[in-house]
Amino acid sequence: MTAGRGRDPGYVVQRVPRDRRPVLDRLAGASRRFQVHALVELDVSEARARIHRAREPLTWTAFVIASVARAVALHPEVNARMSGSSVVTFDRVDIGATVERPGRGRPVLDVVVVQGADRLGCVEITRQLHEAKVGPAPRHPQRGLVAQVLRLPGPLRRTAIRLAARRPSVSATFGPAVGVTSIGMFTHGWGWAIPLAPLTVIATVGAVVERPVVVDGVVVARPMLPLTLSFDHAVVDGAPAARFVETLRGLVETAAALDETPAAPPDDRDQMSRKTSIVAPRALRRSARSS
User: Fold this and answer.
1) Overall pTM > 0.85
2) Superfamily of domain 18-79+92-266 in the CATH hierarchy
3) Which of 9, 52, 126, 146 is buried most deeply by CB count within 10 Å?
């Protein structure tokens, strides 16, 4: 920390902490994407009643993660990422969720990966999120390489990441294509948030608030969940995105993710690392055939 010499200049200058650099890199990558957003509000009367009756603690974030994961399982085309001239499609539904961990004098934003989230119940996801917040940060399999990259100057570091992302085999290791982030835990007000994240699909969860809605011609108060769904338009077009939103609406409003039975039966893939398939986008394949 530094300040001007002599009299108090009225400000201080601090170096950006190294653990903040990955966040800046993700934002830089996200700014290069073509995102479209859907702002929806969902009636969570059934979900709220069942969450309040639950014998074990459940969080709204865990419920949304479970619901989003089940919707992704029904629309596997969104579980993909552009990589150069190819599309990397993941077989397993992993969801990245933002959490705050205790840091040196301030909370540190981190991302926890909920693996196979479409096959997990809300109780298990709640447990994983809690452990991610209070437990030690997991060791990155490429920790040494990551540490070296973080030492590079910002422009050089982001160029290296961008070039690496063009290789499908490397891009597949960059984490999930789908994420969930919650602002509802920090506010009790109503509203949506427009995120900036380098993901194919990201759901931003607001706070559940009683809102007037019309039911059978009568205005009644219902608990409504504001949800922003953001899509990478390079991967997902408008019609598939709209179908995904409607599927998610049905899952959330019926509280289907609170059922004990997962969306898909577990199989041998649960014991395997995430598999991927790599294909050229349809438009690129047509162009290649015509050339």
Assistant:
1) no
2) Chloramphenicol acetyltransferase-like domain (3.30.559.10)
3) 126
